[in-house]
Design goal:
This protein is of the alpha+beta class and 513 residues long. It has 16 helices and 24 strands.
Amino acid sequence: MASPGDDERKGLLLQAFSYTPLSSLPALSLVEGLFPLYSSRMSATSLDQVVSLCKRRGFVFPGSEIYGGLANTWDYGPLGVELKNRIKQLWWKNFVHRRSDMVGQDAAILMNPRTWEASGHVSNFNDPLIDCKKCKQRYRGDKLLEEKLGVEAAAVLKLDQVQPMLMAEKIHCPHCGNLDWTPAKKFNLMFKTQQGVIEGEGQDIYLRPETAQGIFVNFKNIAQTMRLRLPFGIAQIGKAFRNEITPGNFTFSTREFEQMEIEYFFDPEKNDWKHVFADWKKASWSFLVDTLGIREENLRFRDHESDELSHYSKGTTDIEYKFPWGWGELCAAAAYRTDFDLSQHEKFSGEDLHYTDPDAPTSKIIPHVMEPSFGSDRIALAVMLDAYTEENVNDDTRTVMKFDRKVAPIDLAILPLSKKEHLIAKAQELYKKIIQDTNLVVDFDVTGSIGKRYRRQDEIGTPLCITVDFGTLGEDAAQGEKDTVTIRDRDTLKQERVAISELREKIAEMWRK
């Protein structure tokens, strides 16, 4: 095949934003000083920046968009589902596979309704609902107060204090601007449906509002079949549903969401709950920072005040993230539930849920429980906000998602320099080799100029791009030696010429760094 002419080759290189032929340098040498230092860096200053990028690049779409959408429902696109799956896989690996005291399960979404009577959700799972007397719009009173007073101050208010506080703080209706609220009333958050083939004659059941109860009702089965000894934990990832009154802030608060929860069972006579509590706080923090790469300056612990705690709880500590609208709960690092849940289910079901110590058969106890609870949707949002970066490079703004490499949706991209058939064929050969020989997620991108493709890969957070050019084919020594390619680093923009035969080892080396 004919090699590209000088004019075509020159044009290809001029359009490349940061692609530079490297043949003048030895293979495997690092290119320094090709690009100026960043004149400034800026993280996301508003949620709109990330929402726009998510829609434009295929992370998150509005639910049912072709029908006008459905309030506060979101669909994860090709990149969003990869990101979320990686977070879940890392969570499972970190808390289940790497611990000898943990097992997993996957319980049904629909459960016997007595489950929710025992847990207290039927009678106590409520939010303070208020109405504007003028426009009849309905809101969660505590959420309106949070915007003015902060999360901590709003959380301690009792039901009969919500409406007077709204009036005292002169918090007007967001819809019509009127200041005339109804007294707050309780609103149950569970979605109710019916089980049965004849409408109106079926049994009332609920979509689960949390995954934890599925763990408690299976405690006896799992403890016996897996021959577990205290202390041990049971983990589960699954969907939960809450009929939130005013959900919002993108995927932060939605009616359908996914939980990653652990119920850790222990004997309080042998394990001081404060030590267990501290261990799980440390483990939860480490997962967010060390595993997912969220910056510590954007995280903080918040201990629940006594007025916030459930009547059975002795302590709960959340980890909060600094979202664009302020600090918000990211996960419950540790919540001490005592023996309430198992005791309630034993009472309502009539089943003996005591744990028998294999080393002391006469010793039977109801274990106490420590609960770390994570939401994959909120964590995915925090990871995206944390990764979002705008940089000025060469007097131009570069938007880049600086994901930790463990969570990036795409590990690397293969980019042929042009659409010449023989160049694409070589690039496809390399693409197939990488996906067959490794477990990396690889993108193959031929659309647009090489510069635009680099920009696109930056915006979706791809850590490495591999460019296949005419030097790779042995047709242009100015671009590089035959059977070599250029690796471009997302964060430094540095390029390195590498022999294809050594590519796998070089990628592994860069990953370790």
